[in-house]
Structure formats: structure tokens, C-alpha cells
């Protein structure tokens, strides 16, 4: 999974939204356009696993980037109370 790959209509998770993709010998054809299925340009191409990215890139082959952030200071905000809660607790601001 080191390199990004394009989605293939031969993938078991691929689905055509128009139900017009069918297998013809070694390729997948589209009844809608009467040519080979092109996932990158098709608006009806779907992924069952919801991993299809724009331009037909398979999201399963993309490596995520994580960023380590320094722990921020805890900003304590006071919550102002009124009514019944104020009477029960007895303080105007709760931290």
C-alpha cells in the first residue's frame, strides 16, 4: 500500500449506480455509454466500502498523514447558572 492506486471496476467493492456495468471477457463495459467502464470519469461509480475518492483513486491505498500537536493549555470557561440550578448549587459561576 505504498503507492496510490486508481479504482478498478474489477474490484469486489465497486458498484455502478445505474446498474449498467457488465463483464465482457476480460473488461467491464458500460451499457450507458457503450464503452469500457472508466471509474475516474463516471458520475455513477460507487464504492460499497465508501472509499472512492475524486479522480477514481481508491481510498484503501492512500496512507493517512497524522500531525502531532502540542498539548494546549486548558482553557477553563465559566458556565453561568440561573434559576433552579443556581438555587441548588449556590454559586453564580461553575467552572
* Number of helical segments with 4 or more residues: 1
How are strands sequenced across the largest beta sheet?
2-3-4
- Low-confidence runs of at least 5 consecutive residues: none
The shape is elongated
Q: What is the average per-residue confidence, as pLDDT, rounded to a whole number?
A: 80
Q: State Rg.
A: 26 Å
Number of strands: 9
- Biggest sheet details: 3 strands, antiparallel
Order of helices and strands: EEEEEEEEHE
Strand content: 25-35%
- Helix content percent band: under 10%
**Estimated structural class:** mainly beta
Distance between the termini: 48 Å
Summarize the entry for a quick read.
Helices cover 6% and strands 25% of the residues.
Describe this structure in words.
With 95 residues, this protein is mostly beta strands. The protein has a domain at 14-61. Helices cover 6% and strands 25% of the residues. The longest helix is centred in the last third of the chain and has 6 residues, at 84-89. The protein is elongated and about 80 Å long. The model has no long low-confidence stretch (mean pLDDT 80).
Observed structural traits:
single chain, 95 residues, mainly beta, 3-stranded antiparallel sheet, two-stranded antiparallel sheet, 1 helix
Secondary structure elements and pairings:
Blueprint: E1 14-16, E2 21-24, E3 27-30, E4 35-36, E5 45-47, E6 52-53, E7 57-58, E8 79-80, H1 84-89, E9 93-94
